[in-house]
Amino acid sequence: MPQPTARTRHQFVFAVLAVGILAFSLLQSLLTPVLVTLQEELHTSRSTVTWVLTAYLLSASVFTPIMGRVGDILGKKPVFVAALVALSLGALLAALAWNVAVLIAARVIQGVGGGVLPLAFGVLRDEFPPEKVSGAVGAIASLTAVGAGTGVVLAGPIVNTLDYHWLFWIPMALTAVAAVAAHLVIPKSSPRTPGRISPLPALLLSAWLVALLVALSRAPSWGWASGKTIGLLVCAVVVAASWVHVEKRSAAPLVDMQMMRLPAVWTNNLVGLLMGVSMYALFAFVPQFVQTPRSSGYGFGAGVTQSGLILLPLTVMMFLSGMVSGGMTARIGGRAVIACGLLTSLLAVAVLTFAHSEKWELYVATGLLGGGFGLAFAAMSSLIVGAVPPDQTGVASGMNTNIRTVGGSIGAALMTSVVTTDLAPTGLPRESGYTHGFGMLGGALLIAVLAVLLMPRPSRNSGTRVSAPPFSPPVEAAPAPTTPAS
């Protein structure tokens, strides 16, 4: 039997990583449009069912950098397989959940799988030729966001055709297959940085992330000036400062603070934070806008399936932009590609803000959003991976993912507050709430464009001369961070 060529082996590895990332990103967003259905089926309250999203968000935020660092130490392959197994077991428990408490616990287990993204980047860097790494990383980064958008589109048809349990059975099957395939296909990886993880930095990182994200996700219902919100935000700041101090003094830091201070790292993280503010809020609020009854004077009275289809152009364009991102990065540099993507997304938000009375306007806007965010996410992930030593790929990309998640939580919380500040007598948000909210998200993108100017210019001999992915399926999001109030 002929042995597979290096090219064929790379294609197999990419395909396995792609399936795992797709299943992970589907689990992020499949539940967002159907929370009302889950509330009714599990006989719980609206405030309780939102913890199905919040628990996953918190767990993934904690475990993403930790799993990335463990992969840097023990090797990417076994930790990537373990993350897929956690996703599969969590999905199995969720599919069998008999009450909302069990479902929330299952979502916490699924959050352990948040490490699949930084681990996938590490596998690509270990196994692919240097000239192929940037394109492959950009493709995987784009596939994350494609999966998140696809989850919103598919949620309605899955629930209407089958039932909500299949929102977990389908990803469970995908992750189980991906775990077996990863064990068989991905070459055995050698540990990059033999050592250990100190428990105190991991504990402090977990504590400030949980305090911050709970405060942001609950602030619209608690009130921004409430004692609980302010107390958690202050706690997050104090514990985060303690975490940085401990990391600097630790002999075995979880996150190397010197690495985080690299210009190419902190500027990409800043842009990622601002992108997250806009992207994940738009994922949550565009379908809600479309579902608003026409009797309110705006909206289209669409159902879950119809509102999900509004995001279909976003998914398609994100796939296509992921295909061309590697080639564009090779020709004009990652910084220019990020700026191009952000400006395209800014144009899309302008359309949403000023022209949303016809469905075709929303299709145009979501298509532009997909193209813009796809370009920017893919190029940003490539720059992060290329800026750090190979033994810090997992933790660096994991922290970048976390920072985008924090941005998403900020954007969703602010958007919820803006949209629901002035409700109509019917209890529905007024159109002006959405208009002002979309304008606010556009402001975040404008600041992100300006932040790109802070990124270091690539040198003539930098690793920007990379080819596009040598495979057909070249395709992030972090989870939808909160559920907008209606």
Instruction: Give me the count of strands.
Output: 0
Report the average pLDDT across residues. Answer: 81
> Helix-strand pattern, N to C?
HHHHHHHHHHHHHHHHHHH
The CATH C-level class name of the largest domain: Mainly Alpha
Report the sheet-strand fraction.
under 5%
> According to CATH, what is the topology of the largest domain?
Growth Hormone, Chain: A
CATH superfamily of the largest domain: MFS general substrate transporter like domains
Region (Disordered): 462-486
Keywords: Antibiotic resistance, Cell membrane, Membrane, Plasmid, Transmembrane, Transmembrane helix, Transport
Protein name: MFS transporter
Organism: Streptomyces tendae
What does the model show?
It is a single chain. The N and C termini lie far apart (61 Å). The protein folds into 2 domains: 6-197 and 254-452, MFS general substrate transporter like domains (Growth Hormone, Chain: A, Up-down Bundle), CATH 1.20.1250; 198-253. The chain has helices spanning 6-29, 35-41, 46-49, 51-74, 76-96, 100-111, 116-127, 130-161, 166-185, 199-222, 227-249, 257-260, 263-291, 304-309, 312-332, 334-354, 359-387, 393-419, 431-452. The longest helix is centred in the first third of the chain and has 32 residues, at 130-161. Helix 13 runs antiparallel to helix 17 and helix 16 packs antiparallel against helix 19. It is mainly alpha-helical.
